[in-house]
């Protein structure tokens, strides 16, 4: 079957002609307006990118040697300067380094385990054993029962170092762990002796809880460690005074409550 004939109209429609004229006019207008825009002053402004100090930058910082202890017990630990300077004490020591001299800080009188805990906190934000809520991680190295106050003394040493190095947040962490640590009467005696030997009278944050502990429990606990308790009171009279003051304060408050209760509950005397 043959295909039907197709008739092609060779005349250009008027609509197409008009559209072409419009396009040409638009192109001319765009070409003519090129470069006529007023400058806004924003052409050469580069976006501001805030530089972030990453952990890798700390790891690239110089290594500082910490010489801890003395004699046969002396140990050398290493840490990155970029992290150590978080502690004002270390920042001050590093600033005193002479050009070309060994980058060492000596801590001859400090405990190696406490110093290691401080470094662990500086690097990780916490130290072992960690705390989750009000529960502390199990530490298999602590004896049970802890008659020597091993756990309490560990955290107390970290607390005193944190105060000295200028790390208040670490001091708070150690203080919380102290209050979550279980011990015995003899362990508490060892802890109290350390606190009153290593801290000043103005440090009520750690001294007052120690005195309050013995003020509220001494009538029971002193029988478990009576000689140790007596020796501690003679060795550190301030401890004995703090405990006695709290005991007398509690007795005075009880007397005041009892007196107020008897006065409010009694009958008024009738006048004649």
Helix-strand layout with pairing:
Elements: H1 14-33, H2 55-59, E1 63-68, E2 75-80, H3 81-84, H4 88-95, E3 104-107, H5 112-124, E4 131-132, E5 135-136, H6 150-165, H7 168-179, H8 185-198, H9 204-221, H10 226-235, H11 237-265
Parallel strand pairs: 1-3
Antiparallel strand pairs: 1-2, 4-5
What does this protein look like?
Residues 1-43 are annotated as: Disordered. Residues 9-23 have a biased composition (Polar residues). This is BTB domain-containing protein. Residues 34-43 have a biased composition (Acidic residues). The chain has 272 residues and is mainly alpha-helical. The protein has a domain at 111-259. It has eleven helices and five strands; from the N terminus they run H-H-E-E-H-H-E-H-E-E-H-H-H-H-H-H. The protein has helices at residues 14-33, 55-59, 81-84, 88-95, 112-124, 150-165, 168-179, 185-198, 204-221, 226-235, 237-265, and strands at residues 63-68, 75-80, 104-107, 131-132, 135-136. It has a three-stranded mixed beta sheet. The protein has a two-stranded antiparallel ribbon with strand order 4-5. Helix 5 (112-124) crosses helix 6, helix 6 (150-165) runs antiparallel to helix 7 (168-179) and helix 9 packs across helix 11. The longest helix is centred in the last third of the chain and has 29 residues, at 237-265. It is extended, with a radius of gyration of 39 Å.
């Amino acid at each position: 079957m043959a295909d039907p004939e197709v008739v092609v109209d060779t005349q250009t429609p008027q609509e197409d002609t008009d559209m072409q004229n419009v396009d040409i006019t638009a192109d001319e207008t765009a070409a003519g307006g090129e470069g006529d825009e007023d400058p806004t002053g924003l052409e050469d402004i580069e976006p501001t990118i805030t530089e972030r100090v990453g952990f890798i930058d700390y790891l690239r910082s110089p290594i500082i040697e910490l010489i801890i202890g003395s004699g046969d017990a002396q140990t050398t630990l290493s840490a990155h300067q970029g992290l150590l300077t978080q502690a004002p004490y270390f920042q001050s020591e590093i600033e005193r380094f002479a050009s070309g001299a060994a980058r060492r800080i000596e801590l001859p009188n400090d405990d190696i385990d406490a110093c290691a805990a401080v470094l662990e906190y500086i690097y990780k934000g916490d130290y072992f054993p960690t705390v989750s809520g009000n529960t502390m991680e199990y530490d298999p190295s602590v004896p049970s029962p802890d008659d020597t106050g091993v756990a309490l003394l560990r955290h107390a040493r970290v607390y005193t170092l944190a105060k000295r190095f200028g790390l208040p947040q670490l001091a708070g962490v150690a203080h919380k762990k102290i209050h979550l640590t279980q011990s015995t009467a003899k362990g508490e005696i060892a802890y109290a002796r350390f606190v009153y030997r290593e801290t000043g009278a103005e440090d009520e944050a750690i001294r007052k809880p120690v005195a309050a502990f013995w003020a509220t429990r001494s009538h029971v606990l002193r029988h478990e460690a009576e000689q140790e308790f007596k020796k501690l009171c003679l060795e550190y009279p301030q401890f004995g005074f703090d405990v006695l003051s709290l005991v007398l304060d509690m007795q005075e408050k009880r007397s005041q409550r009892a007196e107020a209760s008897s006065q409010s509950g009694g009958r008024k005397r009738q006048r004649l």
